[in-house]
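Hey, I'm writing a tutorial for new members on how sequence and structure tokens pair up, and I'd like a real worked example in the thread rather than a made-up one. If someone can provide the structure for the chain below, I'll link this post from the tutorial.
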Amino acid sequence: MSEKLQKVLARAGLGSRRKMELVIQEGRVSVDGKVVALGDRVEEEQVIRVDGHIVKNRTPENAICRILTYNKPEGEICTRSDEEGRTTVFERLPSLKGARWISIGRLDINTSGLLLFTTDGEFANKMMHPSQQIEREYAVRVFGDVTDAILNRLRMGVQLEDGEAKFLDIKESGGEGINRWFHVVLTEGRTREVRRLWESQGLQVSRLMRVRYGNIALNNQLPQGGWSELNLKEVNYLRKLVDMPKETESKVKVDVAKDSKFTNPQARIRRAVKKHALHRKAGERRRTKTRTRS
């Protein structure tokens, strides 16, 4: 059965369908050696190339949807590469063959906490679509005098430059004086929305961390820079949220207790995070020496 080419490319993890439509229109995609046009369809056995590189045509039946949770530290950016050499959220993720990790939404450089990654481009696009109204919860430390009137306005809705916005829920969670913590919930992913809502009331956000996406909460034992893969039940919970069919397979071991390599996964993650940090520092020292010599 044939499928639209942009759908196949998105499922392979090369980007959103809209982005793939642009790639096709730019003449960068060929099927069986012939450059294709937008609207063309492709069969499973045909050879697809993007910029000359073969793309594995993973049909819905043979592609396993994998999802990672990642504890993003402050200072990392949500792009695959950075001209300034800053650390990206993709650097520590496990390597893949025939697929790639796609970020479900973004967090700005000064925001930490829960990020989700998947291998399924169609699933990622649906998760990020505003119509899905999936809850995101943040822990936020606010600097300033937070009054009941301000909290009521933030619950009722305030006008931002890109339209009205509000928190579905606000709960106090500690702090003293003019440095107080709150947990807030919203269902949109607009740029810097949490910060802009508080700033609209003359307040400053001094710390911001995402702690929940849907019912997937950030694991407190997961170190910053560490990742953990969701099991089949968790994957299917998220797929159900966006009306996608259930997965029947998973790469996650169900009974990890019988495998000595997995008896202490948190310690293994911490070692990996530390190893990556040391490797990156060594690379930065080498680049500094090279620039000094030149």
